[in-house]
Amino acid sequence: MLKMAIPPEANLSLRWFFMGNCVLFLHYLLVLLRTTNDAVLITTTTHAVLLLAFVLINFLTIWVLYSRRQQQKAISLQSAFLGLVFGSGTILSLGHLPLAGFGWYLCVLSFFHFAEFIFTALYQYPSLTVESFLLNHSFAYAIAAFSSWIEFFIELYLIPTAIKFWPIMVFGLSLCVMGEVMRKVAMLTAGRSFNHYIQVTKEEDHHLITHGIYAWSRHPSYVGWFYWSVGTQILLCNPICLVAYTVASWRFFKERVEDEEITLLHFFGEDYLNYQKKVGTKLPFIKGYRLEL
């Protein structure tokens, strides 16, 4: 049985993601020390300063180690940042509701972007770049995320117990996990035929994938991403952003699917046309591109 070789970029990313996550262990080590007889030595201020120092040392180390290797530096910085977010989210998630919900959200958000890079490195290596984290997906994506944070904390301040409660959060978290798994299974199944960008030139290793999860949906990675996106706002109990995210995501994927299927019909012709007839998109009210005969 052949073993999968882990690309050096994936190893580097995993290493710094773990280092970023170490903020979690440092936090609980300091909490443990504060419960001892020497608690006076670890005040709340000291606790915060030590955590901040740990973060700064990590980023400074990356900057020095990879000062002449820009790609490694970019991968390491993004991985350490995502690890820090995941670790911080875990700290919050082990606290009290509703802040625990925001902690779950941070973990979900961080893992999504980290896993995008890792899966691309493992299964679509030729297309791997520092952009594969999708952290700079678009300006609109950043604005949407920032808006959801604002809504969460405004509602938390105005009505701290009326909206944020665990059954809704658990449902949202479950939807995020389902969407994440669906997208990654789609990436794994498609292998080299998957790409984060719509391809306009057919490569030699570009094949029409119709088995596995693609026998259920023509665009399972988009289905997963759509429900992941909606799930994040249910997890945060954000009614306004839930509507906005649903509408914006639906419009984005409707246009994306139609644009992609134009190229797929050009690449695979009648084979893709027959595939269209047999398998739906599974995105709500999105039929895809229809070839006029």
Describe this structure in words.
- Helix content is 68%, strand content 0%.
- With 293 residues, the protein is mainly alpha-helical.
What multimeric state do the chains show?
Answer: single chain
Average pLDDT number: 92
Q: What is the N-to-C order of secondary-structure elements (H for helix, E for strand)?
A: HHHHHHHHH
- Number of distinct helices: 9
The shape, in one word, is globular
Please outline the major beta sheet. Answer: none
Specify the structural class.
mainly alpha
The beta-strand count equals 0
Residue stretches low in confidence (pLDDT < 50, at least 5 long) are: none
Q: Please estimate the helix content.
A: 55-70%
Q: Cα distance, first to last residue?
A: 48 Å
Strand-residue fraction? under 5%
| Rg calculated over all Cα atoms | 22 Å
Concise description?
With 293 residues, this protein is mainly alpha-helical.
SSE layout:
Layout: H1 8-34, H2 44-65, H3 70-93, H4 99-123, H5 139-158, H6 166-190, H7 220-235, H8 239-268, H9 270-278
Catalytic activity: [protein]-C-terminal S-[(2E,6E)-farnesyl]-L-cysteine + S-adenosyl-L-methionine = [protein]-C-terminal S-[(2E,6E)-farnesyl]-L-cysteine methyl ester + S-adenosyl-L-homocysteine
Function: Catalyzes the post-translational methylation of isoprenylated C-terminal cysteine residues.
Family: Belongs to the class VI-like SAM-binding methyltransferase superfamily. Isoprenylcysteine carboxyl methyltransferase family.
